[in-house]
Amino acid sequence: MTELFRDKVDIDLTVNGEPVEARVPAGQHLIDFLRQTLGLTGAHASCEHGVCGACTVQVDGEAVRGCLMLAAQADGTEIWTVEGLSDTAAITDLQEAFVARNALQCGFCTPGMLVAAEELLSRGGTPSRAEIREHMSGNYCRCTGYEAIVDAVESVAQARAGKGAA
Amino acid sequence: MTLEFGNPDRPNSYIGKTVPRPNAGKLVQGRGRYVDDIVLPRMVHVAFVRSPFAHARIGRIDTEEAKSVKGVLRVLTGADLAEVCTPWVAVLAHLKGLKSPPEHAMAVDRACWVGEPVVAVVASSRAAAEDGAALVEVDYEPLPAVTDMMTALDAGTPVLHAEMGDNLAFQRLHEEGDPDGAFARAHKVVSAHFRTARHTGVTLEPRSILVDWNPAEDQLTAWHATQAPHMMQTVLAKHLGLAEGKVRVICGDVGGSYGIKVHVYPDEVATAAIAKIMGRPVKFIADRLESFTTDIHARDHEIEAKIAVDETGRILAFDIDDWTAIGAYSVYPRTSAIEGNQVVNLCGGPYDFADYRAKTTVVFQNKTPTCQYRAVGHPIAVAITEGLVDMAAAELGIDPIEMRRRNMYADDAYPVTSPAKMRFEGLSHHASMDKLLEIMDYDALRADQAEARKRGKYRGIGIASFIELTNPSPFMYGIGGARISAQDGCTVRMDPDGSVVALSGVTEQGQGTEAMLSQIVAEGVGVSPDKVRVITGDTQVTPYGGGTWASRGAGIGGEAALQSARALRDSILEVAAAMLQADQSQLDIRDGAVVDAGTGEERMPLEELGRIVYFRGDTLPKGLPRELVQTRHFITSDYPFAFTNGVQASYLEVDTETGVVRLLKHWCVEDCGRIINPQLVDEQIRGGIVQGLGGALFEEIHYDDEGQLLNGSMADYLVPMAAEMPDMVIGHVETPTRESTLGAKGAGEAGTAGAPAAVMNAINDALRPLGAQVTEMPFTPERILRALGTIAD
User: Fold this and answer.
1) For residue B375, which of A152, B227, B551, B749 is within the disulfide window of CB 3.0 to 4.6 Å?
2) Which residues on adjacent β-strands are paired with residue A78?
3) Cβ B103 vs Cβ B88: under 8 Å
4) Would A152 be classed as within a structural domain?
5) B316-339 average pLDDT score
6) Domain assignment present for A131
7) What is the ipTM of this complex?
8) Contacts B201 to A, Cβ<8 Å
């Protein structure tokens, strides 16, 4: 077992728009690589089973569980975390809506929640509250009771739809 | 001191308004700093080998193979740690008869639950520590496990801790009036058996601690996800043999607590002990299986209860026989007897009746220890009380609203003392019920229910009135000998640029403590909230305080902030009066400037006053006090607790084919006294409700007969997700406490207290035409189908 896990894999990828080359343990999860090796501590490890969504990051445009993907599998991918999405102002409207609506309390789930919400909103259209709830059901929040999150996502969906129509 | 809270146009009117949380912006950008985000030079990681048996004697421990793993630096046993860390005994003097054996940071010769730490493996990475832990060989000799609550005291059941004599940890019987007489003369007696499942908190951030011991300074520093930094300072100092002044606990961002992170955990103390042994920083972050097996559990109760009523529906008496099993040890230092004690204190809470008997029996078993979790005891007491009230109303053919109307304390009855000897300063059950009926449109819902029934749909309305214990005084813990502060303090200072810094002993767990404090300080001094920087969670920096638990942050910490802010205002105005040669009483501070109190005309911005005081003190009169730093502490003294009240309603539909409950909508009216930030209060209540809904419908820790935990992952222990949760309507009645200028009581636990009972009553309202009733939580499809007789085996 230990022989296997000592094996290292070279990867070459883009993280938040910056090139990254690294030699990673074959068994290292993507979330641990991002947090521990790159110091990107925005996404969090929580359930470590792919259930709670706290580790959600964007991989090639899709919301992906950082705890279910190995760092080695990220070779050649383009990854965006909440840090990069903040720096590029890609989700500023969502972040502002979350703050205004108090759609976060402890904030531990929030970076993953934002990536999941952005995935839904990037599909376009104006999802219903039920659709928002369904989409966000892969991201657990133990503080808010979800209603404020649904409100925030809904308000951004409507605002983006309004802009698109104008 | 007077502040015209009722006048929304008063100057600096930030208390009572929704203002943004100062710390939300960093959290949405992923710039929070939780313990696991901190990396220190020479930091190492610890992983624990944990008992796979519920009860076993620990024999030979072979650590050789583990030590050979690359990166493993040290392997320590319970005996190794016992050399530097003393065990603790979690009892409190005021909980008479409570007993619990000494508990070590790691098991020394016997493991008493699945998950108890046995061996610590320290390595340069967590992965290496886990690889090492997997190779530690421990010889266990399994011992008989005590796993059933109701037979724990039977003669044939093994005694878990021989030195304790039996498996009874605590028992309390409270009797008031003549309950037997009341039951004998009652028109009707309704009885029921209730069960609430074993829960755990499932904080998204697992328990986390990083401890550094610096022998060169004799200083221990712990970065800790905790609700009570000063309590932890005391605990770590005491058990590691250090002076309290040599221990610093820093609590930065915390990823959810709900009571889980207010307790002393063996593995966290072990981490501190290892840091002391190794003289370098040691990090422990629980993984999710460790969270399920070692975070405290709660709410594992079985209750036989009955209510006596007369012909008119007046409640005559309650008789409650509550049992709970707390695991292998009472949890330090708050003890595991509090939850049962709360059930005794809180049953029947909203109602004016005379005769009461309540008994709680708290037993040991070989499972994870239970202790205080959000709304401690309240969901149990409210479910028992409100369940019985609804059953009695149905027996008598009285509408559940009317039944409550006839029994709730009148809103002008206060102060009163309940049959449980709880003292209520001022509650608003009737006004809250009025508000609830208004916002839910009760009559329209009943019409909808009847219409749905015609279509074969079983919808139900459930009501739950409740009381909630907040703002605890030393009567909660201090009186029993625990060094847990009921007092809290705040230091407020003005810096040269006119900005204000507030240092508070209460902590932020996400509920918005720092926003609440910034509003209070802003109004108290006379600046805008964005000029106030709030610092919490550092025992070396803030005034000594209790932290955040039992809904005390706003009521206790908020009042200390207000008092210190007003004192700073007076200090500023004293200087300003000397500078402006004005009468101090004619000056005020508004929006960051000294103004003429009568006209509002600006006389001097605070930054000018700051410039003079800090850099040109020579121009001020000699001897003029110029202390632009003020500290005040606050403690409640008139009442042991500030009780709040409220009422919730649930509207739901039960699919009688599948047993699935669909929540349609939920309402809560809460009276938490003065509301400081309406949005934050509403969102705390919504979050609390959903935790209560989880308990009502999904959450249950399962063990087998051997004491093996069966559902230790988030895929197996179900918590509410967005899709199943309803929208919630929140309303308020405000009855400020007269114990403080601020008048705030707590709001953090109301949602959790009442939601399970409201759902239970709604399900039973829906099922009543079918003759079915459920009283065992969670109300899973299986339990509902059993109640309906669909499943009979």
Assistant:
1) B749
2) A14
3) yes
4) yes
5) 98
6) yes
7) 0.97
8) 142
pLDDT at B1 (0 to 100): 55
Residue B121 near residue B49, CB atoms below 8 Å:
yes
Give me the pLDDT at residue A107, please. Answer: 98
Is B510–A107 a contact, with Cβ atoms under 8 angstroms apart? yes
pLDDT (0 to 100) of residue A163: 77
CA B239/CA B291 separation, integer angstroms: 24
Q: Which chain B residue shows the shortest CA-CA distance from A34?
A: B37
A8 touches chain B (CB under 8 A): no
User: Of B33, B204, B511, B648, which to mutate for an interface test with A (greatest number of A Cβ within 10 Å)?
Assistant: B204
Tokens coding B247: 């221990």
One DSSP character per residue, B560-618 reads HHHHHHHHHHHHHHHHHHHHHT--GGGEEEETTEEEETTT--EEEEHHHHHHHHHH-GG
CB contact under 8 A, B34 and A108: yes
- Check which CATH number belongs to the domain holding A118 and give it: 1.10.150.120
Considering the domain architecture, whether residues A159 and A112 belong to the same structural domain is answered as: yes
Q: How far apart are CA B589 and CA B11, in angstroms?
A: 9
* Surface of A (65-84) touching B: CB under 8 A: 81-83
CA dihedral over B47, A29, B254, B467, signed as positive or negative: negative
Strands B355-363 and B315-325, sheet pairing: parallel
- Amino acid B49 reads V
Strand ranges across the sheet with B728-732: B458-470, B642-654, B661-671, B728-732
Peptide bond into B678 cis (omega under 30): no
Decide if A63 touches B, using CB distance below 8 A.
Answer: no
B341-379 pLDDT, tens per residue? 999 999 999 999 999 999 999 999 999 999 999 999 999
Q: Which residue of A has its CA nearest to B32?
A: A42
Report pLDDT for B180.
98
Q: List domains and CATH numbers for chain B.
A: 24-32+487-634 (3.30.365.10), 35-143+202-294 (3.90.1170.50), 378-466+642-787 (3.30.365.10)
Take residue B733 and report the two structure tokens written for it.
């009645």
- Nearest Cα of chain B lies from the Cα of A29 at a distance, in angstroms, of 11
**Residue B666 to residue B404: CA distance in whole angstroms:** 19
Is residue A2 in a domain?
A: no
Mark whether A66 and A116 lie in a shared domain.
Answer: no
Q: Could you tell me if residue B362 is left (phi over 0), alpha (psi between -120 and 50 degrees) or otherwise beta?
A: beta
